[in-house]
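Example 3.2
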Amino acid sequence: MEIITDIALLRARLRQQTAVALVPTMGNLHAGHLSLVQLAQQHAGCVVVSIFVNRLQFAPHEDFDRYPRTRENDCRLLEENGVDFVFIPDEKTLYPVTQEFQLLLPPMADKLEGACRPGFFRGVTTVVLKLFNIVQPHVAVFGEKDYQQLQIIRGMVEQLNLPVEIIAGRTIREEDGLALSSRNNYLDESQRQQASGLADSLQQIRKDIISGERDFPRLEWSAIERLNKLGWKVDYIAVRQQCTLLPVTACNSDLVILGAAWLDKIRLIDNILLTLP
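Structure, written as tokens:
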């Protein structure tokens, strides 16, 4: 495994590769990231993992400065898992001048996560497009846990005719259902015992839908009330169409149940995919 911080050197190393897979990350790697690496290895002979905490997707009041950075441990895990190249640029490498060119995003980017975190998806698409241009991968792997992000990147690739196949990796969970996330490191022991409550609420909605319930706003509100009573502060609970993230109509069978909520000062997100018969 080779650790590279320079764009020109990475391009030189990849020039002779016939099939390259990219796994973009912000580091602080866990089993969820490693599952994406393993998925990438199934689709390409050369795997590049990028580690970069992207300032553009953080609002001024968010946790950019304290976001966990664990480069040494990350590189050890990636080497143990057979990664070929780790790309770890600094900010001056990716943003040598002020990033004035950014994409105009579709309405999907202003809903749910986009409504709660204005500018977030503009920052995400900017850095992902840069990484695609630098690495020029044949395949890129993203986790389903960040479902709205995944759909926006899929749309960007399709509408900009980028020669990249987007592969989605399933959400990896703890035994109690908590979705793995780097921000789980913020949880203290008491918070960790409560943290599966968001996943439990989404699973309850799934069970109710499978049982025949179709009053989605009522299901959403019931979940919000339940979490509020447990001490959470809910940003949203939503049942949506998988492809568009629009409200569900009678003809939709591929659904996604999404949620974001605060446990004290820690924000967790999750989702569950559901296909109706």
